[in-house]
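Anyone up for a design puzzle?
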């Protein structure tokens, strides 16, 4: 099958006002799953994508979906249901104004997975035992509620495989992904792309950027866009779903709403995410919520000078501009990122960037920025992204703090290493922390603190006392902004008075999240993106949830 046979358009054909579809989806990340749901119901569906490849930030991700009560969890023997997950969300989010959104999400997830697994493109999803990020709270679970797509042979997509955005690693360093399989978020996007186009009702237009919404009689009836420098208009008989990511790459909006985010220049979100869909919704009177929020993460500054999403710190300490520890360094990434942002803007002490200090003992056990059995890449030392020095005095000079302040911090930390209890930040005490003992991956087991493989009571707390020392930099990064257009349980975009704008829907980071300011578990952002795109389709198709 050629690309033209699949109803794909690279944006070079003439666009006219007469092009009409049932549904238009703006963005090709999580919205692509919603587009498949619409097209599989016989609705003529158009996806417009601003860039030349599909996937957005979803393609950068691990592809996890936080879907309590779904079939992959039951197949894995996970004793969990929607009611338990509802208890958990109510407790950790603690926002009554979002309870209807949570209920809709919990209803949609299992049904969506069941529907996807009926497609020949979506092989059965698998459970990944990633603990809930607040697993100790009511309704939380250590076994996790995250499901993942299986890897996908690139050959299954044929010529279409080149349309899937590369991983963030590949895009960042211009390296080719090893092997011939799409993995993680790329697998999810690849499967959705194949399924969507094979319905015979799906059209994909690349290099086509949204410029505005077409409104007639108070109803959204289409979109205006620019394709290869030409203005085009597409009409939608049933509705438009905005699923174009957040505004992480829009400096003006970020400086206005998120002063700690440094204008978005340290974001790990897709480069084209400049808030086009958000702005289009606002322009026709849509309400917004949580524009001050982002999916913040710590970013380890790389040899190229920019941060890269970091999780799984297993040793050493982070210190702020006063030379003090300020967080459990291996806390779930969103929590650590938010703590960096909060402290940086409220304490008067620099927290972004902060510094990560390790010693030779830690390097010998875990190496750095890679698998434990691989040596440190020479580019880290050559670039200065990782500094190697012999004394704490030299460390203090790099960190730019008084050496006595740094010495006191390290002595206190080393005392915790002797007892195995981090009295300040409790590192190593949660199932999430324990995931990162030995190797970065799934949990090593609940009894890891007694592991015979460590010389210390808590393997996550090795002392810092073996020169030479190593210093890296950690900055506040993000994997996308979090606030956006305000929606209801059907993903309909709302006005400030609470009424829905007919014909307009939003999902993913274009919409304000059902989880509020909280990140409940791995796969919540992508899960929300595809769940609310699916809810929009159900509403457009007249199907009850």
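Challenge accepted. My sequence:
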């Amino acid at each position: 099958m050629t690309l033209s046979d699949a109803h794909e358009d690279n944006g070079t054909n003439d666009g006219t006002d007469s092009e009409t579809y049932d549904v238009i989806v703006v963005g090709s990340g999580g919205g692509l799953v919603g587009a498949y749901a619409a097209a599989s119901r016989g609705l003529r569906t158009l996806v417009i994508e601003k860039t030349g490849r599909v996937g957005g930030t979803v393609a950068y991700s691990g592809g996890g979906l936080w879907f309590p009560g779904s079939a992959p969890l039951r197949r894995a023997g996970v004793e969990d249901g929607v009611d338990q997950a509802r208890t958990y969300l109510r407790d950790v989010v603690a926002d009554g104004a979002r309870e209807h959104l949570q209920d809709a999400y919990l209803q949609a997830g299992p049904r969506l997975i069941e529907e996807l697994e009926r497609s020949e493109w979506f092989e059965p999803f698998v459970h990944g035992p990633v603990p809930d990020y607040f697993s100790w709270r009511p309704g939380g679970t250590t076994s996790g509620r995250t499901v993942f797509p299986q890897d996908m042979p690139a050959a299954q997509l044929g010529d279409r495989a080149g349309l899937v955005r590369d991983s963030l690693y590949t895009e960042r360093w211009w390296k080719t992904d090893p092997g011939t399989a799409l993995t993680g978020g790329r697998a999810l996007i690849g499967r959705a792309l194949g399924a969507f186009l094979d319905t015979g009702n799906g059209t994909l237009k690349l290099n086509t950027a949204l410029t505005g919404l077409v409104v007639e009689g108070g109803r959204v009836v289409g979109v205006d866009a620019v394709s290869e420098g030409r203005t085009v208009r597409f009409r939608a008989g049933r509705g438009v779903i905005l699923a174009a990511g957040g505004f992480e790459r829009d400096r003006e909006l970020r400086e206005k709403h998120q002063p700690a985010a440094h204008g978005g220049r340290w974001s790990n979100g897709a480069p084209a995410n400049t808030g086009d869909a958000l702005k289009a919704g606002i322009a026709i009177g849509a309400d917004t919520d949580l524009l001050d929020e982002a999916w913040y993460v710590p970013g380890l500054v790389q040899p190229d000078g920019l941060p890269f999403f970091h999780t799984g710190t297993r040793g050493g300490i982070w210190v702020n501009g006063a030379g003090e520890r300020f967080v459990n360094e291996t806390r779930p990434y969103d929590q650590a990122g938010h703590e960096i942002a909060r402290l940086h803007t409220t304490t008067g002490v620099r927290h972004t960037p902060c510094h990560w200090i390790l010693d030779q003992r830690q390097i010998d056990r875990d190496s750095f920025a890679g698998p434990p059995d691989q040596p440190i890449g020479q580019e880290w030392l050559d670039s200065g992204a990782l500094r190697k020095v012999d004394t704490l005095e030299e460390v203090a000079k790099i960190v730019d703090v008084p050496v006595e302040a740094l010495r006191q911090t390290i002595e206190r930390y080393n005392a915790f290493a002797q007892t195995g209890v981090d009295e300040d930040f409790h590192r190593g005490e949660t199932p999430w922390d324990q995931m990162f003992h030995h190797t970065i991956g799934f949990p090593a087991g609940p009894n890891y603190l007694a592991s015979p493989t460590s010389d210390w009571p808590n393997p996550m707390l090795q002392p810092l006392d073996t020169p030479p020392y190593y210093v890296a930099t950690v900055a506040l990064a993000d994997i996308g902004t979090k606030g956006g257009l305000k929606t209801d349980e059907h993903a309909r975009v709302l006005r400030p008075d609470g009424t829905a704008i007919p014909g307009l829907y939003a999902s993913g980071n274009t919409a304000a999240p059902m989880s509020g300011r909280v990140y409940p578990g791995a796969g919540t952002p992508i899960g929300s993106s595809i769940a609310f795109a699916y809810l929009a389709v159900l509403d457009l198709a007249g199907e009850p949830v």
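A detail worth pointing out: The radius of gyration is 24 Å.
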